[in-house]
Design brief:
Layout: H1 7-12, E1 16-23, E2 29-34, E3 40-45, E4 51-53, H2 61-75
Antiparallel strand pairs: 1-2, 2-3, 3-4
Length: 81
């Protein structure tokens, strides 16, 4: 799938618009789509009305990734700094 994409292109590729969530930590509204392979994908709509994966432009992505790494390390009993 090439992004940014129109709503019609997403539907044609098998994406299903599932729900709109509250704002992300970056302040953007996140729309959740289900892909053909049954994976959830957070999407954002740009100024042109096209869809892009939210993580592609999220200002908080690095801090969110660090939080996830810490959670995974804690589950494995690894000290993470």
């Amino acid at each position: 799938m090439n992004f940014p994409a129109t709503s019609e292109a997403l539907r044609a590729a098998g994406y299903v618009d599932m729900e709109r969530s509250k704002f992300c930590a970056c302040g953007e509204v996140v729309f959740w789509f289900l892909t053909r392979s049954a994976k959830w994908m957070p999407m954002a709509i740009d100024a042109d009305g096209c869809w892009t994966p939210h993580w592609a432009n999220c200002r908080q992505v690095k801090s969110q990734q660090k939080i996830e790494r810490k959670k995974q390390a804690a589950k494995q009993g690894i000290l993470f700094t």
